[in-house]
Amino acid sequence: MPTIANVPLDAAFWIWGCVLAVFLGFAIYPILTLGPYIRAGCKINIHRNRIPPDNKVRQPNPNGDAFVLFLSGVGRVSALTMSRREQGILHRLAELCSDAVLLDDVFAYSINNLPLVSHRRLSPMWRWALRQKLKKRLHNSALGYLINLRNILHILISADSRYAMVYNRGCAHVITDHLQQYGYDLAQPKPLVIVSYSGAGQIAAGAVQYLSDEYRLPVYVLMLACFFTASGIDRASHVWEFIGTTDQAYRFCLLFSPSRWLIPRLSLWRRLTAAGRTTRIDMGAMKHTGRGGYLDRNSVTSEGVPFIDATAQAMADVINRIRTGTESLKEA
After folding, report:
1. CA triple 177-182-185, angle to 5 deg
2. Residues of 110-143 as b/e, b for ≥16 C-beta within 10 angstroms?
């Protein structure tokens, strides 16, 4: 049988065919994602979720002194989180920041807030992937990580300068539309705190530019082990990073974001840090996710505090200072 590099021709054909298919898929995905939005003149119907309040989160209150928006990690398929860990920290934040309006029903990986599991042609496939992910068996859960891969592609679109302007402006529009549903007045804006987890940090960083420049909102960003480029984040009033000493996933992804390296003198992140507009909070020996992660309720700090409670308290301290107007932009 003819061979190429000692690989049977038939096998080599399929290998290179798969590589080409993946490459083409990555190349045209941004066009498929943004095409309908651009054809509609960058105005598209935003899917409004009908998720009822749970007595702690999603409570409309126009008199709230700050609005806190939580953007989830890459495992989410809709605006409603199915993660017990994320639900746990949301409820803790709601208790610790009782005078703020806490929202969590924005799907960060969709330019029109449309969930993966409904109102889409490929919804049956995503529902199948979600079922596989929720199963305990390894091979099933691995198939479910198609959801993570799809959401990571949206993070890359948000970070790519060729598509970022369109995608991030759309995300900002979704956020402002969502805030108004809960009583936020764009004419008299109150502090908006975006709490991002993991990959959602890039979505937040991209949207901040338009939330600040076009809507004139005072935006503060809390990044929990987030992956993001520095472009656009300079429009935030202040940025806090919550990082664990054993979070290797965060450190690995930081290698692919040169704009956040502190070594180059002209690095945007270095300039923001020098201006006192970024604060890094050491979370101790916490990992990125799972056992020993920021949202783990079984692992405890040296003081005996569960990791999830320590994370919620650290964030709530910052939110309450913003909410009461006692937060200094040059706080170390």
Report:
1. 70
2. bbbbbbbbeeeeeeeebeebbebbeeeeeeeeee
Reference 163, options 22, 19, 32, 23; nearest CA is 32
Backbone angles phi, psi at 24, to 5 degrees: -65, -35
Helix (H) or strand (E) run with residue 322 in it: helix 307-324
Are residues 278 and 272 in contact, defined by beta-carbon separation less than 8 angstroms?
A: yes
pLDDT in tens, 292-320: 999 999 999 999 999 999 999 999 999 99
DSSP symbols for 280-299: EEE--S-BSSSTTBTT-SSS
The residue count for the chain:
332
pLDDT in tens, 71-117: 998 988 888 776 889 989 999 999 999 899 999 989 999 988 889 98
Q: C-alpha distances in angstroms, 50 versus 87, 89, 230, 239? A: 18, 22, 34, 31
What is the Cα–Cα distance from 267 to 223, expressed in whole angstroms? 19
Rounded to an integer, what distance in angstroms lies between the CA atom of residue 92 and that of residue 74?
21
Fold of 42-324: Rossmann fold (3.40.50)
